[in-house]
Amino acid sequence: MEEKIIAKATDMFLRLGFKSVTMDDIAGEMGISKKTIYKYFINKEVLIEESTEAMHKQVHVKIEAIMAQNHNPIRENFELRRMFKNMFQAAETSPLYQLKKHYPELHQKTMCHELEDCYLFLRQNIDRGIYLGLYRKDMDIEKAIKFYYMLIFQINENTVSEKEAQELELAVLEYHTRAIATEKGIKELEFNLSNNN
Q1: What does pTM read for this prediction?
Q2: What are the structural domains of the chain?
């Protein structure tokens, strides 16, 4: 039952917003009593924390599945972007924006978690891109990673509309890739941009 509540709450939080969804709403949607929810979660904040953790795990399972497909690093970034777009397409408001605005402590905890994992992924992506000749060898990798994630997280934390956030993320992905790509990498970027849907 606990996992079912987390799954339903996560879906509702993404679609309707962390602030607006109440424990009554979740109980009503599931056809159970609010008391049943409180049996597993002492309050809404704990349920939100469990939901964001479940979302984090779900995202990373999907990231690993995409990485296992062994795309070249530029294509991999476009596949990841498509995955995020599909996951959050039902959300009108950026989930990170909602979390930062209404639950700043949970937001801070989530961000620390995400930054660690995202750093490892992007470092691996850049190392592979250099090896394959798609990214320049002469770049400062640490700064490239920092710039990219500072831009991505700033967009998601400060842009209310999920649709606008996704459009800006694509612009940042292009900006980031052009900054670190070789001529071969630029051709691959152009190919992915023209086939982006």
Answers
A1: 0.83
A2: 51-194 (1.10.357.10)
